[in-house]
UniProtKB/TrEMBL annotation:
SUPFAM superfamilies: (Trans)glycosidases (SSF51445), Glycosyl hydrolase domain (SSF51011)
Chain segments annotated as transmembrane: 6-26, 33-53
Pfam families to which the protein is assigned, alphabetical: Melibiase_2 (PF16499), Melibiase_C (PF17801)
The organism's place on the tree of life at top rank: Bacteria
Protein's name in the database: Alpha-galactosidase
Single GO MF annotation: hydrolase activity, hydrolyzing O-glycosyl compounds
Lineage: Bacteria, Pseudomonadati, Bacteroidota, Flavobacteriia, Flavobacteriales
Organism this protein belongs to: Flavobacterium flevense
Length: 516
């Protein structure tokens, strides 16, 4: 029902009662009935109008979250450098570096990745920092080791030995305040569901009459981390539990939440909806990032209705084979590039990675500390694809030990401008016969005002090659000045066709096109 139909209903009601009044004796009793009825009709009409307004307001609120990420989010995440063991000191020192070196380019989110509630194994100390295994052990008596830091409502809290400012139930409030003082946004990673430890203790759910065992789905567990049980989204108390989580995060000043084990290998649609409702109800805007991948394209519409960004890849690392695979994923998801909801190609593994070596029992043997194994051409290819595909730009290298050239690689203003502000981003589909096996790709984009166009020529093969673009493929007929996006070199004017020459193996050449 809209405003017009409400007014129409009121008008019809008034007319009927007027007609009744005209055809009866106008004694006091009839007039009294008429007046009471007229008041009733107006009351019903006003109730209907208010109902319409509420429905419209609710509809707006459902879409409001998209305004919290109008451009692809940019920032840094601790996982690629510190696994699940980052400390407060390491994080705050990283924030200081980010403020100076990357915030001017738009990298404004700093995120503590997973297992911040894990104090580490017995004897672990931040003073002798190492990464550590993150799985909980359980003895014959049912005791967990280590015990995760948790409140009386089954909500996980920062481990105080790693985050000293979290003492006295302060949580991440002090860290959030510090990040905000740098004019940056504060993010955290969480695991889907409720802690197994909470279920064992059957902790109460805040603001409800239910308990952890009422909502836990014990057969629904994460394939790679055993800290949590999933929730049964149809059980009373499940929504209240997620509400209590995000109310807590709002008190901490959280701006960005990455929820893991939720979009793949199993897509947990109903838990995603619970989280969406909890964020919308908590009173603080929080960008919602869903992980991990590869998320199936068949869920794209649901993702757009609920999340600001969503992983379309499995954990991405610094291997050329993984970079090449991203072209297939970016091509498949390009129709879903949309304002406020972004397909996420994952973190950028450039710089110093896997500090102190990752626990080998949890990770493959190549997760020893190292600088990115991608060569410079492959790194340029990565950055160019991420920006042309408008992926969120979340850097994973260690801010404290990465080299100046690593910061330079992720700070190309021309490409960041394309990532943040371009439109009509897509791969040119002129490769139908060889499909995804083709070893060259072309991506294009345009400025919002239509005055600039952008084109990237990718060579996925093992030998250098030339690659041509015919302007009529995109109805870009005319004469254009070409400027190299990586070097800012002006190449001159071209019409009808342009050939990028000697594109190195695994490399890219990318250009701004200005119409003459």
């Amino acid at each position: 029902m809209n405003d017009i139909s409400v007014n129409y209903s009121i008008g019809i009601g008034v007319a009927i009662f007027r007609a009744v009044a005209v055809n009866v004796n106008f004694n006091k009793r009839v007039m009294g009935l008429y007046n009471k009825s007229l008041i009733l009709v107006f009351a019903i009409g006003l109730f209907s109008l208010n109902s319409v307004y509420s429905q419209e307001k609710s509809k707006v609120n459902k879409e409001q979250f998209k305004s919290w990420a109008q451009t692809p989010p940019m920032g840094w995440n601790s996982y690629d450098a510190y696994h699940g063991a980052v400390t407060e000191k390491q994080f705050l020192e990283s924030v200081d570096i980010l403020e100076k070196k990357l915030l001017p380019y738009g990298y404004d989110v700093a995120t503590i990745d997973f297992c911040w509630f894990n104090p580490g194994p017995k004897g672990w100390s931040p003073d002798k920092w190492t990464t550590f295994p993150l799985k909980q052990l359980k003895d014959a008596d049912g005791n967990f080791s280590p015990l995760m830091t948790m409140d009386q409502y089954g909500r996980l809290l920062p481990a105080v030995n790693r985050f000293p400012s979290a003492k006295n139930n302060n949580g991440f409030k002090s860290i959030g305040d510090y990040v905000h003082s740098k004019k940056m946004k504060f993010g955290i990673h969480i695991m889907r569901g409720i802690a197994r430890q909470a279920v064992a203790q059957n902790t109460p759910i805040k603001n409800s009459k239910y308990f952890a065992k009422d909502i836990a789905k014990v057969q629904d567990t994460c394939k790679w981390n055993n800290n949590m049980y999933g929730l049964d989204p149809f059980k009373p108390g499940a929504q209240e539990y997620y509400n209590s989580l995000f109310q807590l995060y709002a008190l901490w000043g959280v701006d960005f939440v990455k929820v893991d084990d939720i979009s793949a290998p199993t897509y947990h649609a109903k838990e995603i909806e619970l989280i969406r409702k909890a964020i919308d109800k908590c009173g603080r805007p929080m960008v919602l990032s869903l992980s991990c991948g590869e998320t199936m394209v068949s869920y794209a519409n649901h993702l757009e209705r609920n999340a600001n960004m969503y992983r379309i890849s499995i954990d991405f690392w610094d291997k050329w084979k993984s970079v090449a695979h991203m072209f297939d994923l970016a091509y498949a998801w390009q129709p879903m590039i949309n304002q406020g909801t972004w397909p996420d190609l994952d973190m950028i593994p450039i710089g110093n990675l896997c500090i102190g070596d990752y626990p080998l029992q949890e990770e493959s043997s190549d997760k020893t500390e190292h600088f990115s194994r991608l060569n410079k051409e492959e790194q340029k290819t990565l950055m160019t694809l991420w920006c042309f595909a408008k992926s969120p730009l979340i850097w994973g290298g260690d801010p404290l030990t990465s080299k100046p050239e690593d910061f330079d690689m992720i700070s190309n203003k021309n490409l960041i401008n394309i990532d943040q502000y371009s439109v009509n981003n897509h791969q040119i589909a002129n490769f139908v016969y060889e499909g995804m096996q083709r070893e060259d790709r072309i991506w294009t984009a345009e400025s919002r005002d239509g005055k600039e166009r952008y084109i990237a020529f990718f060579n996925l093969g093992e030998k250098s090659r030339d690659l041509s673009f015919y302007f009529h493929w995109e109805y870009w007929d005319g004469n254009y000045k070409f400027i190299d996006l990586w070097t800012n070199e002006e190449l001159g004017d071209f019409s009808n066709v342009f050939t990028a020459k000697n594109i190195p193996a695994h490399g890219v050449k990318a250009y701004k096109m200005i119409k003459k």
